[in-house]
Fold these 4 entries.
Entry 1:
Amino acid sequence: MEPINVVKSVYAPLDHKNVDTDQIISKEFLKRIERTGFGEFLFHHWRFNEDGSVNEDFVLNKPQYQGAKILVAQDNFGCGSSREHAPWAILDYGFNVVIAPSFADIFHNNCYKNGILPVKLTEVECEELLATGIAQAQEIEVNLAEQTVTTADGKVYSFSIDPYYKEMLLNGWDEIALTFKYEDHIKAYEEKRIVFE
């Protein structure tokens, strides 16, 4: 995984509540065995009309939000099934950070395991970001080390994160890589165990 420290980018305001994993990545696109290649199918049924044409009204299709690395949404983001393909699609599309008032638990944990920073701000703070970002594309800075989100006009929001996941994301570690941090302890334990056997 790539380390995350400071992400500064235009953000995409997705003004929807209860965005479920089937809306994030629909079931017909789950046939791949790799973790990559899902980004092109992110929010497919919102990004495209039934005839396959681009839905120009959808936020991700608007030119001012192209290249956004930060997604801002409403309550209960990532609800529905436990499919890990949802964070895969979000990351593959180019988002490193998702900001919302609340996340479904499994999706929230899957974000950490796949190198995405899920930031919980209050409902009022998210509403402010959504309103501002919809009115005009805005750049914000998310600083994981400082646990802050700073708007273009200098307003600062703070967020909390479990120190375990913070360390993982700052270093670009998954849970297997985190185990190697204790490699010397593991080796010493194994050597001691061999002596007693």
Entry 2:
Amino acid sequence: MNIKVICLILGLVAGALAGYVTRPESAEIKLPGVNIEVTGTGTAQGGGELTSDQMTHIGIFAVIGAIVGLGVGFIAGRGRA
């Protein structure tokens, strides 16, 4: 496997894990026609369903991790050439 792909995957996984660990505390109430989402200031404690705000948070961290991993892969690949 190419070093860039490996670093990209590792960055994606590390970013998603960091996003999951630091996800904001949220509560989501779904009523017919109305979705109410309340986000706290602290990090979420324990399990439970992920809200859309938490999924967005995890996704943003995963993308940032993937970009950093790809950058590391390019630097590592350049050193080998």
Entry 3:
Amino acid sequence: MNSSIFSAIFLLKRVLIGSIEHIFPIIISILFCVLFIKYSKLKFSSKQQYKALHALGCLVSLTVIAFHLYKISLEGYNITTDLPLYLCSLMALFIPVFTKYRKYWMFEILVFWILGGTVQGVVTPDIAVGFPSFDYFRFWAVHLGVLIIIFYAIFVFKMSPKLASVFKSYFALQAYVFLMILINYVLNANYFYLLEKPKSASLLDYFGDWPYYIIVVQIILIPYFLLIYLPFYWIEKRKKRIEEKTI
């Protein structure tokens, strides 16, 4: 009886600690994102806004680089599992290119990749070692960092995708998938989970075994991107109505 009680308490403790480790960085990032955007809009000049966004982009990218240098220093770095080729890590690695040049075609691709893919990672995190490991901080810095960057671009720089952006982002993702297929073949790896689902719980668990989950994702991807595009469409439509009334 006592052992059952202790087991239940231990399980409850693990769940609570896991929940705190999951929820706390999200709450902190939401607060930071809101304050960062509001302060930038009120206090920064355009030049300062560009510098602030680029500084954040560089910080996110340097976190990825530092983490991989750290793992290499420990030895046992495995190119079949450890390279920064998963979509979120790859985006984080190259996000300074977007924050530096702010090209619209980059935004068109990133907005759906980040809002579509990174959010899923935030909801169901795949972290090998929990708090207070480097992997824990790297995971949240990458996933929440790129989300803050894309929200900054939306709310500060007023960047907004078009309907055509949905398909541009989709086909760019297909190019990435094709590249990962080649790399997985050469390295006998599983980047982007194209050969096996992640060990941790994820939405892919609801889509069947390999290769069915890949097929299901391909089928729902454009409707999913369209769903993400919908708020932007409504906002743009509302703006046009207001403009027509003022004319």
Entry 4:
Amino acid sequence: MKVAVFALVLICLGSAWSCVGSQPLDSSSLNDIQKFSRRYAESTIASDISKIVDSMVQKNFVNFLLNQREKKSEPATDDPDRRIFNDLLKKEFVMWIQRKGEAFK
């Protein structure tokens, strides 16, 4: 099956090349070829640029997610109210342990 498809493609390409070769190349057909090659080059460049921009956007998104994850995992020790509250909790806990220790003596 693959051989048949390959042979069919070769026959089609051969007939297309024979049609192109049999016609004389005038200035209009040369212009058409140049326009086609220029459009092909422009689309290739645009495709490459699009791939590069997509990869940059993906990297930026991953970095954004990693930064958000780091921000969530960092404790908020800069808040003075929270620091005071934590200090009070520590003092209360130490006093509770001391009272329990005195009760067992």
